[in-house]
Amino acid sequence: MSLEAALRAAVGEAQVLTDGDLSAYEQDWRRRWHGRARAVVRPGSTAEVAAVLRACAAHGTPVVPQGGNTGLVGGSVPDGSGTQVLLSLQRLNRVRGLDEANLTLTAEAGCVLQTLQQAAAARGLLLPLSLAAEGSCTLGGNLATNAGGTQVLRWGNTRELCLGLEVVTAAGEVWDGLSGLRKDNTGYDLRDLFVGSEGTLGVITAATMKLAPQPAAVTTALAACDSLDGCVALLNLARARLGAGLTGFEVMGRFALDLVARHFPALPRPLPGAPWTVLLEQSDVEGEAPARARFEHLLEAALEAGCVHDAVVAESLAQSRALWHLRESIPLAQAEEGLNIKHDISLPVSAIPRFCARTDARLAARWPGVRLVNFGHLGDGNLHYNVQAPPGEDGRRFLAEHEHAVNQVVFDSVADEGGSFSAEHGIGALKRDELAARKHPVALSMMRAIKQALDPQGLLNPGRVL
Ligand code: FAD
Ligand code: ZN
Prior knowledge:
It contains 16 helices and 18 strands. The chain is an alpha+beta fold. The chain has five domains: 3-88, Uridine Diphospho-n-acetylenolpyruvylglucosamine Reductase, domain 2, CATH 3.30.43.10; 95-213, Uridine Diphospho-n-acetylenolpyruvylglucosamine Reductase, domain 3 (2-Layer Sandwich); 217-331, Alpha-Beta Plaits; 338-416, Alpha-Beta Plaits (2-Layer Sandwich), CATH 3.30.70.2740; 430-456. Helix 10 crosses helix 12 and helix 13 packs across helix 14 (395-416). The structure holds flavin-adenine dinucleotide and zinc ion (ZN). Residues 148, 376-377, 384, 424 line the site of zinc ion.
C-alpha cells in the first residue's frame, strides 16, 4: 500500500490534504519559515495518530507534529523538500475530564489553551498557564515547547503544571501515562522527557494538568522605573511584601511601548516616557480591596526607596485587562513594525542590569542606531531582547546581513553571565546550530542517545533540536 493510501485508511479521505492552499500549515506564525508538506494529516483520535505514525514508520517517512503553529523557532512547519508529513493535532480537542477534588484537568493535545482556561474557570478553578498566543496555541504545543508565559513566577513552566501524559511513540505505540499523581517515583521520569522535546521524541496526544483554586481577586499595577536596577529592587520588594500573591512581574522597555503606541494608538499609555515600565500582578484569596491596599503600600515603599518614580494601581477589572493588553500587544506591534532579530534569553535576575548595559553598548558600537525592543518576564530572569534595525533601514535586509553576528554578540554576553540562549521558545530549526555549539558536549551526547533510543529511524521532526 502506498503511504497516501495508508494515511487515508488511518484517518479517512477528508483528513488527508495534499493540494489546495496549505499555507496555514506550511508557514509559521511569523511568516519566516515556509515549507512544503507531502501531505497534511488531521487525525481525530489517539488511535488515529498511532495508525498515522505506524504508516510513516513503515514507509520511512518523516513526520512534523503541529498544534496551533504559533511556535517561534521554526519547529512546527515542514521543510521545503516535500517529503515530510505534517501531522496536525488540532482535531484532538476534547476535554476528557476535570477532577475537582484532585484539582486536575485531562485534555487532548489539540485543545486551544484559552478553551482549557475557560473550562477550568467555569468550575471556579484556574489553569495557571497564560501567554499572548493563548487564543491559538494548543496544550500539546505548550507541553512540547515547555512554554513559559506570564505566570511562571508563581506557578512554574508548563512542565511544573503537567502531571501525566499520553504519548504515541515513533513506532506508533500508545503510552498511557495520564496519571493525576503528584508523587510517583517509579523509575525514570518519562513525562519530563517528552515535555520540551519539541516533537522529536514522540507525539503528545493528551495530558493531565494541575489546577488551582481561582483567586478571589486579581489586580494589577504599573510602575515606572528609571533603571533596570530599580526594576530588580522593586521585584525583591514585591516578593518580600506580597509573597506567593505576586503572580506576575513583567518589564517593558520604552521602545517596546513606543511600538505599541505607534501601531495600536487606541490603547492607553498610563506612564508615558518611562525608561522602564513594570507590570505587577497580584492574586489574592481575600478580595480586591485588601489586594489594592497591599499594592498601594508596596508602591509607596518603592517610591520612598527611590526604585520607582511613578505608579498606578488598576481600579477595575477592565483597567487591569487594559494594562495586560498593553504588555501582550508588544509582540504584535513588533510584527507590524517588520522583522527584527529575536532573542529569548534568561539570566540570573541579579545579572540582568549589567548584562543589558554591556550588551546594549556592544551592539551600539558595532551597529550605530540599532534599537532594542526589550521586554519580558523579569521575575523569571527571562528577557525578550530583540534587536531592531536602525531607523530607516529595512528590517528584512538588516536581518539577512547581520543576524548571525548580532546573535554572537548577544549569546556571548549571555554566556559571560551564566545565562541561557533559549529560555522559553525552544530550539526548533532556528537555534539548532547554537545548541550544537554551546551546549555541554556530555549533555549533547546524552540527548543524542535518548533520541536514538526513542526514534531510531530519526523520523520525528528531523533537523529540529539536534
Ligand atoms: P506549534 O507551534 O504548533 O508547535 C511547537 C513545537 O511543538 C513544534 O516543534 C511542534 O513540532 C511541536 N508540537 C506541537 N504539538 C505537538 C504535540 N502534540 N506532540 C509533540 N510535539 C508537538 N512561548 C512561551 O513559552 N512564552 C510566551 O510568553 C510566548 N508568547 C508568545 C506570544 C505570541 C504572540 C506567539 C505567536 C508565540 C508565543 N510563544 C510563547 C511561543 C508559542 O506560542 C508557544 O511555544 C506555544 O506553546 C506553542 O504552541 P502551539 O500549539 O502553537 O505549537
Ligand atoms: Zn515570553
